[in-house]
Amino acid sequence: MSTLTEAAYFTRRGINVAIIVLIVYIILRIFWGVTVSIFMFLFPPKPPPPNHRFGVLPRLKFPEVASPSGQLTFRLETIEGSVPPASGSAVVYFMPKALANFNGLPRAQKFAEEFQFSPEPTQETKTVFRFRDPEFPFRQLRYDIVAHNFILRYAYEQDTGLFSENNLSSGESAEAQTLNLLQQEGLFVDEYKKSPIKISFHKLVGNTLLPAPSQSQANAVRVDIFRNPVGGFPVYTPQPEVGPVSALYSGSSNPRKRILQFSYTYWPIDTKAVGTYRLKTSDQAWQDLKSGNGYIPKYPQNTTIVVRQVKIGYYDSIEEQSYLQPIFVFEGDEGFVGYVQAVAAPWVKTD
Q1: Nearest Cα to Cα of residue 98 among 229, 187, 195
Q2: Maximum CA extent, the chain
Q3: Cβ distance 319 to 67 under 8 Å?
Q4: Which keywords belong to this entry (predicted)?
Q5: 3 state DSSP class of 189
Q6: What is residue 239's predicted lDDT score, i.e. its pLDDT?
Q7: Minimal CA–CA distance to 245: which of 326, 294, 191?
């Protein structure tokens, strides 16, 4: 009998000791994690020294639009009270070029026929072809036969009557339709499995679609698929609110008027072919923005711009570029966004 009592005693004691050890382990692990986080915040690792592996880089291909910087007055109101310091260097990634092949044009023609365009295109450039819909002249398809990037668009501004039908899909349905189309056309890449997706609703005002406060007041729904962050930094497009994959749907029952726009741009990134480059100081970037040496995709109607935040990101152009390069991103009131190329001279071409 004493043996059973002793066994029960030591069993209970062993369980208690095990629980205490487990609690101590959890506390120490949490403490260690918090300590490491605080240390990394206070003493962040130094950025890799610049090796300028790819030599002098080309200037970023921002859209060729007149910069409004000359008509704007900038005021900096960050938490720090100044332009926060940026890292001294950043990684630049090589972007391999797509290779031409004999199947490019036949593939584009097949794609055009699937969406009821004439298979006989007009050639716009060496690689870009334009397809038309003889029955619906407001529809056009612009297709790059090498990169397989495209823009399918219905000029709804000239046919606003299509919005009289408002059988609009839900956001979830529009998202599923977009992803299915990518899969059917062999355009779905693994990256999209975890890509951020944004659903937005839009209302017709005059002949323009503007953001709608709710689905019940909307005339169109848009699905935007964005790239995943690269190296922990977000990737920005020429229009920061529009993803490189963007689909806009109406509520029309006519399938040729239902897709108002479907744009697809995908440039692969070689994350193993990298170089590190010296960056401008954030003060230099701020001066570049104010002097018009940047690109401003979004700005309010008033001429006084209040900038609240400055960060580093990467720029993903609509046009083909050889490298994924870092940019300074300035964000402010009323949706203001401005970009400035981040790599410092003399490592960027001036022309």
Answers
A1: 187
A2: 98
A3: no
A4: Membrane, Transmembrane, Transmembrane helix
A5: coil
A6: 94
A7: 191
235: β partners: 314
| Cα end-to-end span (Å), the chain | 95
Torsion of CA 77, 78, 83, 87, to 10 degrees: -160
Ramachandran class of 251: left when φ > 0, alpha when ψ lies in -120 to 50, beta otherwise: alpha
pLDDT at position 20: 81
Q: Which of 272, 346, 277, 280 is nearest to 53 (CA)?
A: 277
- How far apart are alpha carbons 290 and 308 in whole angstroms? 15
Of the candidates 244, 245, 248, 173, which has an alpha carbon nearest to the alpha carbon of residue 209?
Answer: 248
CB 59 within 8 A of CB 351: yes
The confidence score (pLDDT) of residue 68 equals 66
265 backbone dihedrals φ, ψ, rounded to 5°: -135, 125
Confidence at residue 305, expressed as pLDDT on a 0 to 100 scale: 87
Cβ count within 10 A of residue 49: 9
User: CA gyration radius for the chain?
Assistant: 27
Q: Any idea what DSSP says for residue 227? A: P
Tell me what pLDDT residue 303 has. 79
Instruction: Check: CB of residue 258 under 8 Å from CB of residue 36.
Output: no
Instruction: Give residue 6's pLDDT.
Output: 64
Nearest to 264 by CA among 250, 248, 249, 247: 247
3-class SS letters over 30-70: HHHHHHHHHHHHHCCCCCCCCCCCCCCECCCCCCCCCCHHH
Helix, strand, or coil (residue 314): strand
Tell whether pTM > 0.85.
no
Asked if residue 96 has a cis previous peptide bond (ω within 30° of 0), the answer is no
pLDDT along the chain (351 residues), means of 10: 62 74 82 70 65 95 71 84 86 92 93 96 96 96 96 97 91 95 92 93 95 92 96 95 96 95 96 96 94 87 87 94 96 93 94 71
Residue 17: predicted pLDDT: 74
**How far is the C-alpha of 241 from the C-alpha of 128, rounded, in Å?**
26
- For 275, residues 6+ apart whose C-beta sits below 8 A from its C-beta are 51, 52, 53, 54, 91, 92, 94
Phi, psi values for residue 217, rounded to 5°: -100, 5
